[in-house]
Write the structure tokens for this entry.
Amino acid sequence: MTDVKEMMKRLEEVQDQIAERSLVLVADDGSTEEVLVRIGRPYLFPGSDEYIWAYEIVGGGIQEGRFGAGEDSVGALVMCLQFIGTRVHVLRDRFGGRLNWPGNPDDPDCGFPRFPKQTRKD
């Protein structure tokens, strides 16, 4: 069981950072804290034909990492960016809209794409 936990932790770590975006979290008293979104280079998972992606969001009391897989490195990056956009949107809601991207403070996704909305087909 320890091996699985260690592997999961390793997968969630951004090992070869290729991009970073700085966000700002505004506290109730008006002070600000930097929140960094870091994206790792997708890599071919050993023994598989899928590419693993990872990102982390750290700062302002937030510390989380996520990972997933895509069919190729481009698909992995697109999926990673969509996961970040969705997660940032949720975090922004949690903080009452006080998590912002200085490049466009009114953007609820802080400049990241989100997954397209799915319409239900009955």
Notes: Residues 73-94 form the longest helix (22 residues). The first strand starts at residue 17 and ends at 26.
